[in-house]
Automatic annotation (TrEMBL):
The lineage of its organism: Eukaryota, Viridiplantae, Streptophyta, Embryophyta, Tracheophyta. Keywords: DNA-binding, Hydrolase. GO terms for biological process: double-strand break repair via homologous recombination. It comes from the Eukaryota. GO terms for molecular function: 3'-5' DNA helicase activity; ATP binding; DNA binding; four-way junction helicase activity; hydrolase activity. Residues 1-131 form the Helicase ATP-binding domain. This is P-loop containing nucleoside triphosphate hydrolase. Pfam families: DEAD. One of its GO terms (cellular component) is cytoplasm.
Amino acid sequence: MVSLMIDQLKHLPSIIKGGLLSSSQRPEEATETLRKLKEGIIKVLFVSPERLLNLEFLSMFRLSLSVSLVVVDEAHCVSEWSHNFRPSYMRLKASMLFSELKAECILAMTATATTMTLEAVMSALEIPSTNLIQKSTNLIQLNYLQNISHLQNTFKL
């Protein structure tokens, strides 16, 4: 999960200032990230569900910070594996995110969800079915197009 957050942070457009809070950070790194967050420098913060549910972390938002958008990445974890793998995902509820973080919007994203999983995620995060945007990608076709592109570039030499 941390490596995914690091990768997403690295790929943010340079105009968007981002930060990361994880258990693998040194204390001084976390302190610096929190300072930038409080000062409004950081616009996108990557944080684990465990940290998000930490009462000390949440207290910052009660005082002065508010969140425009909460993104729950790997949202299938809210239902599929959270019972044993990441129980904190099960504790993510829209009502908590709205009240504790003063979130204006919640976006749940996953690339691996069955219909049953989607329904469970939408129920847990209190997302109405009218807000579901479902897009299928054909990974075989994407890989095929990549290979064709590679071959075309090879023959241009």
